[in-house]
Write a structure and sequence with these properties.
The complex is a heterotrimer of chains A (271), B (259) and C (271). Helices cover 76% and strands 3% of the residues of chain A. Chain A has helices at 17-43, 47-51, 53-64, 76-104, 115-128, 131-142, 146-170, 174-182, 187-221, 229-238, 242-269, and strands at 3-6, 9-12. In chain A, helix 7 crosses helix 9, helix 8 packs across helix 9 (187-221) and helix 9 (187-221) runs parallel beside helix 10 (229-238). Chain C has a single domain (64-270), classed as MetI-like (MetI-like fold, Orthogonal Bundle), CATH 1.10.3720. Classes of the chains: A mainly alpha (271), B alpha/beta (259), C mainly alpha (271).
């Protein structure tokens, strides 16, 4: 905040000349980027359709209501599949992600130079690919169906669980670890008695939280053929059966609210 | 019982934390290790059970030379050395009983420990020790539900669960109020006397050390500067250990800082 | 050192207290878990022949990951990436501009009750649905192309940014607000002088975080026709062009990782 005086009066400005120039330059750059982006997007947009959008939207809503209630019986099985994809996928991810976390945490890894980087690489790779992309790939390999969905969810979640759990392990209190070492415990017993009790709440919380996220993700995996209610959604969208689409939306909303409620309850119970 | 010969420890390239420490501990002998913070008290007792690896020197526990043991033999040797910690170092989310049983980990296999299926003799021992330290009905309480004094009693019982040949005690009263501190020190010295256990007790509180231990070892900058009876701690000796400043004032300031 | 059992007293048994005290409830839970696993895995309906056949394709794709083909579809990949990036930027800015008023309305310490309820409603709707489901609707309304993607991501960003920002505003120190109010400032200046200085760093952090998420999402909503690299990836999989698909996947991983890294550093500096 520069202050200067001229002819006996003191002046004040928020930023110095150089700072304000830099700021303006930053904003200018952002605006230019935005203009360029917008130009690119607008070039690829058929504006006639867009002008029509309000009418299209109104038409869509009109066709969505009333929902086609008699379509409901066909949805129970896909809904069950969706829950299965999320639950089994999360279970696999917990089974594989937990040991991975112990290999990745600096204080429990067998080797900081050899094992830890590999474990971290697996975690990063798993995390940076969306489960829908995993599903795209797995449908190609295993064919369409629930199996591809389960594995897609598992592959995406391993990194998530591995990361949060290994951070919890690294943050665990060192003093009990020292005390249990002093009793002559083996390395495995040490992890079991000094580290596991400390990270247990974080482990449960992370798993249930990921299950909650996975329920949401499992509802859309069917769009690429990986089973669950998304398959019905895609089919209904493709046949423009908007009455069915609205029913599916409602069902998804209820499922998501349910899983959120369960996850909040479980996490509150394990502190 | 315990013989330390020419023990040195250097952390990285710093000055020596322990410099040519020599110490003999007879069976049943309890010594207090005093000295300013940073003198190397904590490093010294951690070198004995090798929570800290000594740089050079030899340590004999009975007929076993500790510094040359491989990891398997070291674990066996650690079972014989019970340790009591400054801030209790309990596993807070485990019950009192599980914390006690963790003292038996060196004796049981992985699966027994994992499933908490300890031999009945261990369970008997645990209940007896809980009675002895004055926590008879606390077996299934969680450790984090106890007060500081109660936690330290659990810490003492855990060390005794190992059926140790000696005790290492690291600032047992540092996070306790004065009255509880005296109770804990009395408990430790009584148990040592009952069971004929030798012990090294790190303690910054000189009056407590004088009250409960007959032999005192003073450590300053990694070197032993006093080794003798508690009555021999004259003002000059204390100045030698704690430096020129008034030792009483500094010991009180320490207490305040660590409480 | 022996503390053998005192004679005449019964030997005391100890068992670890079970996690769930009620015995019947505990066994019911175990049983239902086993039952679920049996039924859930049983209902997977896996075509094992198809899976075995697919392993070759899996191997082919794994091979392609080692030799990604950036060149044969080079122009399409570049176009898709640029489209994804410009969608991300535009949508984040639009989302931010719309989210700020919603966030102010959703902060109980600033907004009157009716406005609060309305804004919380907007946040709930925006957060309940997966981006990909919103994208389906916007594609139906606006036609195929990046504009639908921008609308989707902007819509999803509103709920995300507004929720976090509103929480932050509510957690603000109330004293400066009172002080500025006491100076007689009108509501606009109140926001500028009392609220903005307190929440601006957090808002910048939230926005960067959302920018990161938006890029990940922009990479997949192309699957339902909402523009970006996802469409290119989907096409590559459809045509079994493993080399191209592998190249796109690697690019996404690299971009996602560097975006996460950069936004992490920026957020650290803003704190």
């Amino acid at each position: 905040m520069p202050v200067w005086s001229e002819q006996g009066r003191r002046y004040w400005k928020r930023l110095s000349g150089r700072d304000s120039l830099l700021r303006w330059f930053g904003w200018l750059l952002l605006v230019l980027l935005l203009v360029w982006s917008w130009h690119l997007i607008s070039e690829r947009t058929i504006w006639v359709f867009v002008l029509d959008a309000p009418a299209q939207g109104a038409d869509l809503i009109e066709r969505m209501f009333p929902p086609r209630w008699d379509y409901m019986p066909q949805l129970w099985r896909p809904l069950w599949d969706t829950l299965n994809i999320a639950t089994l996928g999360t279970m696999i991810a917990v089974l594989l992600g937990t040991p991975l976390a112990f290999l990745a945490a600096r204080n429990t890894t067998p080797s900081v130079t050899l094992v830890r980087p590999v474990a971290l690489l697996i975690i990063v790779g798993s995390r940076s690919i969306n489960s829908l992309i995993w599903a795209l790939l797995l449908v190609l390999i295993f064919g369409p169906g629930v199996l591809a969905g389960v594995i897609a969810i598992a592959l995406r979640s391993i990194g998530f669980i591995g990361k949060l759990v290994y951070e919890a392990i690294e943050e665990s209190d060192r003093r009990p670890v020292e005390a249990i070492t002093a009793t002559g415990a083996s390395a495995a017993q040490l992890r079991l008695y000094a580290i596991v009790p400390q990270v247990l709440p974080a482990w449960v919380g992370t798993s249930v939280y990921r299950w909650d996220i996975n329920i949401r993700e499992a509802t859309v995996l069917g769009l690429v053929g990986a089973g669950g209610i998304g398959v019905e959604l895609m089919a209904s969208v493709n046949t423009l059966a908007w009455g069915q689409v609205s029913l599916i939306f409602g069902l998804i909303l209820l499922t998501v609210l349910f899983s959120e409620w369960v996850s909040a309850r479980v996490r509150a119970a394990t502190i | 019982m315990l013989r330390i010969e020419a023990l040195c420890k250097r952390y990285g390239r710093d000055a020596l934390a322990l410099d040519d420490v020599r110490l003999n501990l007879a069976a049943g002998e309890v010594i207090a290790l005093i000295g300013p913070s940073g003198a190397g008290k904590s490093t010294l007792i951690r070198c004995i059970n090798r929570l800290v690896e000594p740089t050079s020197g030899k340590i004999w526990l009975g007929d076993t030379e500790l510094t040359s043991l491989n990891s398997r033999a070291l674990r066996k040797a650690r079972r014989r050395i019970g340790m009591i910690f400054q801030e209790f170092a309990l596993v807070e989310r485990l019950s009192v009983m599980e914390n006690l049983l963790s003292g038996r980990l060196g004796y049981v296999g992985f699966w027994r420990a994992a499933l908490r299926k300890f031999p009945q003799s261990d369970i008997d021992r645990a209940f007896d020790l809980l009675d002895r330290v004055g926590l008879p009905d606390y077996a299934d309480r969680r450790a984090d539900a106890l007060s500081g004094g109660q936690r330290q009693r659990v810490g003492i019982a855990r060390a005794l669960m190992q059926t140790p040949d000696m005790l290492l005690v690291d600032e047992p009263t540092a996070s306790l109020d004065p009255r509880t501190s005296r109770q804990i020190m009395r408990l430790i010295s009584e148990i040592c006397a009952e069971q004929g256990l030798p012990a090294i007790i790190n303690i910054h509180d000189v009056p407590l050390a004088q009250r409960y231990c007959r032999r005192i070892v003073g450590l300053r900058q990694g070197r032993i500067v006093y080794d003798g009876p508690a009555e021999g701690l004259s003002a000059e000796v204390l100045t030698d250990i704690y430096g020129a400043e008034d030792w009483e004032a500094s010991s009180r300031a320490d207490e305040g800082a660590e409480a | 050192m022996n503390t053998g059992a005192v004679p005449g007293r019964a030997r005391r048994q100890w068992r670890r207290p079970p996690l769930i005290a009620d015995r019947r409830l505990r066994w019911a839970l175990y049983l239902s878990l086993v039952l679920y696993l049996v039924v859930g895995i049983g209902s997977l309906e896996v075509n094992w022949q198809r899976v075995v056949d697919g392993l070759d394709r899996g191997a082919a794709f794994a091979g392609a990951l080692l030799r990604p083909d950036f060149s044969s579809r080079g122009p399409e990949i570049l176009e898709g990436l640029l489209e994804s990036l410009s969608m991300t930027l535009t949508a984040t800015v639009i989302g931010l501009l719309l989210a700020v008023p919603v966030a102010i309305g959703a902060a109980r310490n600033l907004a009157p009750l009716p406005v609060y309820v309305l804004c919380r409603g907007i946040i709930a709707v925006s957060r309940s649905f997966q981006e990909i489901i919103i994208a389906i609707l916007f594609v139906a309304m606006l036609g195929f192309g990046p504009l639908a993607g921008v609308a989707t991501l902007a819509f999803a960003s509103i709920g995300f940014i507004a929720k976090l920002l509103a929480e932050d505003i509510e957690a603000m120190d109330p004293k400066p607000i009172d002080a500025i109010r006491a100076s007689g400032a009108p509501p606009g200046l109140l926001l500028n002088w009392a609220v903005q200085p307190q929440v601006l760093p957090r808002l910048a952090g939230i926005t960067l975080y959302r920018l990161d998420i938006n890029f990940r999402e922009a990479a997949i909503i192309g699957i339902v026709g909402a523009g970006g690299i996802g469409a290119t990836l989907n096409t590559a999989f459809d045509r079994y062009e493993y080399g191209t698909a592998a190249a796109i996947l690697l690019l996404i991983i690299i971009l996602v990782m560097s975006a996460e890294y950069a936004s992490g550093i920026l957020r650290e500096r803003l704190r």
